[in-house]
Amino acid sequence: MIPIANPIIEDDEIQEVIKVLRSGFLAQGPKVEEFERAFADYTNCRHAVATSSGTTALHVALLAAGVGKGDEVITTPFSFAATANAALYVGAKPVFVDIDPLTYNIDPEGIEDAITENTRAIIAVHLYGQPAEMDYIKDIGEDHGLVVIEDAAQAHGALYYGRKVGSLADIACFSFYPTKNITSGEGGMITTDDEEMARLARMIRSHGESERYEHVILGYNFRMTDIAAAIGLVQLKKLDRFNEKRIKNARYLTGGLEALDYIMTPYVRDNVRHVFHQYTVRVKDRERWIEYLTREGVGTGVYYPRPIYSQPLYEGLGLGASCPEAEKASREVLSLPVHPSLSEDDLDRIIDAVENFPV
Question: Whole-model pTM above 0.85?
C-alpha cells in the first residue's frame, strides 16, 4: 500500500532528542526558544511563540487578539474543525463563508456580506498548502477594523506573491502534527509582527505568567516541550527540500492525470507557491474510487467529508449555514499520496491506477 502520508523522522532528529533527554531539561526551555527564533526568521516575522498544538495556537491567537464572548469570527466551513472550534473556545461565534471552488479557500467576495457589528476577526485557511487571497482579505480587515488570522497549519513554506505565509496577516498559526509538511510530533507555532499580541500569547500559553509565579491574566498550559522543539528544529532545516519534493510529485501526478475527463486535478493560482500538504482531486462516486484505489494499493484521504457547520456539534448549537460550494466539494474531494517519500515508481503506480479506473 502506498500510504497517504509518511512522516520522515531520520537519525539526526533522533540524535537531537537524545541530547535533550540527556540534558535533563525536558519542558519548555532553551530548545523551544531556539525553535521560536529559527521559525520567526524562516517566516520573516518579528515574533514566534511555540505552543503544544496547532489547535492551541489558534486558541491563543484569538485570545491575544482580544476576541471573546459575544464576538463573531468569520471563517471557512471547509477545514478541520479546529479552525472554528477555536472561536467557540473563547466564547465567540464562528460565521461561515463559502469557498472558491478551485482553490478550496474562503471566497473573499463573501466576507463583507457576513460582517456585522459583532464581527471581530477573520480566520483564513491556506487549505492543502495553497495560500488564500490574503491581500484582498487583509484589505477587508483594515477597512472594517478586524483582526486577520492565518490558519497556516497546512502551508509551511508556502508563498504568496513572494511572501511567506505566516507573515501575511496580523497573526498566524501553524501545526506540527505528524502528517504536516514538517512535524515536531505534536506542536504549534504563532507568528506575528505585533509586539503586544506576542507578549500576550507568551503569557497565555504558560498560565498567564509575566514571569515565574507571577500570574497576571488567565492562561493555560499550552507549552511546547524541548523534546518537540528539538525535532522541529531539525525538520525546519529540511522543510524547503521536503516542499520541493512535494511540488515535484504534484507536477508529475498532474502531468499524468490532467488529460483524463473523469477527474479534476488541483488548480494552482498564479503568484503563489502551493506546497501540497495534500494533492486533492475531484471525482464523482467517491466511495467507489476509494474502494478501487485501496484494492490497487493506493492510499487515499478525504479532507473533508462534510462542512464544519454540518457537524452534530454545530447543528446542536444552531450554527448551521448554507455554503453550496463547500458542500459540493465535501462530496467530491479525494486526496492522493504526494508526500516526499514517494518514488517515481510509486507515482507511476498511482497514475496507472487512476487511468485504469472503470468509469
Answer: yes
